[in-house]
Amino acid sequence: MAEKPSTWSQLLVGYGEDAHRLGEGRELWLGGVRIESDRGAIAHSDGDVLLHALSDALLSAFALGDIGSYFPDHDPKWKGLESRVILEVVLQKVRESGYRLSQLSAVVTLDRPKLGPHRTSIQQHLALLTGLPEKRVGLTFKTSEGLAPDHAQCRVVVYLEPLPEKQGEKS
C-alpha cells in the first residue's frame, strides 16, 4: 500500500534578496514601516528591501520569476509603487497555487539608522500584511561593518504549506 505524502513533503521553501543604494532626502521603508532617517532607498518603487525580498522569496518557491517580471522598473506606471501592493499580488499568487505562508525569516543589513528600536513595529506590520502570527516572523538586523554604508540589503527565507482544503486533495 502506498504511503500518503507527509506534510513535510508538501512544504515549499523560497529564498529572495534585494538591495538598494541609499540617497539623501529619500524615505526609508522596511517591512511596510516608514523608518525615520535622513536617507532612503533609491528605487523605482518605495524601495522597501524587506518586502521586495519577501515577495521574491514567495515567487521563487513556485518558480514564478521575480518581482521585476510583474512590476518592471522601466514601466512608468509602477513609479512610486508601494511595496505592500507588490506583496499583496504575490500572496494572491501563492493562494491561487494552493499554498499559504507558514513562516518567514529575514536578515536586514543596514548601517544606520539602528533598526533594533523598530523591530516590534516591523514584526507586527509584517504579521498584519502576511496573516502570520508574530512568532512566525523572524527578523535579524545586521550592519555591514562599514563595508557598504550607503546601501540597504535584505535576505528572506520562507516556508509555505498547502492550504488546509488543498491538503485533503493531495492525500
From TrEMBL:
One of its GO terms (molecular function) is metal ion binding. It comes from the Bacteria. Binds 1 divalent metal cation per subunit. Keywords: Isoprene biosynthesis, Lyase, Metal-binding. GO terms for biological process: isopentenyl diphosphate biosynthetic process, methylerythritol 4-phosphate pathway; terpenoid biosynthetic process. It catalyses: 4-CDP-2-C-methyl-D-erythritol 2-phosphate = 2-C-methyl-D-erythritol 2,4-cyclic diphosphate + CMP. A divalent metal cation binds at D18, H20, H52. It is an enzyme of class 4 (lyase). 4-CDP-2-C-methyl-D-erythritol 2-phosphate binds at D18, A19, H20, H44, S45, D66, I67, G68, F71, P72, D73, H74, D75. The record marks H44, T143 as: Transition state stabilizer. Pathway: Isoprenoid biosynthesis; isopentenyl diphosphate biosynthesis via DXP pathway; isopentenyl diphosphate from 1-deoxy-D-xylulose 5-phosphate: step 4/6. InterPro entries: MECDP_synthase, MECDP_synthase_CS, MECDP_synthase_sf. Pfam families: YgbB. Its cofactor is a divalent metal cation. Residues 13-151 form the 2-C-methyl-D-erythritol 2,4-cyclodiphosphate synthase domain. Its EC number is 4.6.1.12. Homotrimer. Belongs to the IspF family. Involved in the biosynthesis of isopentenyl diphosphate (IPP) and dimethylallyl diphosphate (DMAPP), two major building blocks of isoprenoid compounds. Catalyzes the conversion of 4-diphosphocytidyl-2-C-methyl-D-erythritol 2-phosphate (CDP-ME2P) to 2-C-methyl-D-erythritol 2,4-cyclodiphosphate (ME-CPP) with a corresponding release of cytidine 5-monophosphate (CMP). This is 2-C-methyl-D-erythritol 2,4-cyclodiphosphate synthase. It comes from Meiothermus ruber (strain ATCC 35948 / DSM 1279 / VKM B-1258 / 21) (Thermus ruber). The gene is ispF.
